[in-house]
Amino acid sequence: MGNRSVWKGPFVEPKLLEKVNNAISGGKYTVVKTWSRSSTILPNFVGLTFSVYNGKKFVPVLVNEKMVGKKLGEFAPTRIFTGHGNNRK
Predict the structure, then answer these.
(1) pLDDT in tens, 28-49
(2) Domain span at residue 52?
(3) Interior/surface letters 21-39, b for 16+ CB within 10 angstroms, e for the rest
(4) Cβ partners under 8 Å of residue 70, min gap 6
């Protein structure tokens, strides 16, 4: 996966972890707003919706089991490909 050593464990922003724990303990699965694109998705994030900032707006990301171990930023693209040049016919 990444270059982070195993003994350190996955990186998750402490404030984000706090927001997630509050959302889970509150019982209601609210949208968790975050700027931390580099945080790793943990198994207890499954089922939650995150609003991940892409530099312009917040992109909603619904976490499922296949996303565990990846970064939040992988699911909020920062660039939009509009095609090469002017391809109108």
Answers:
(1) 778 999 999 999 999 999 999 9
(2) 6-75
(3) eebeeeeeeeebebbbbeb
(4) 40, 41
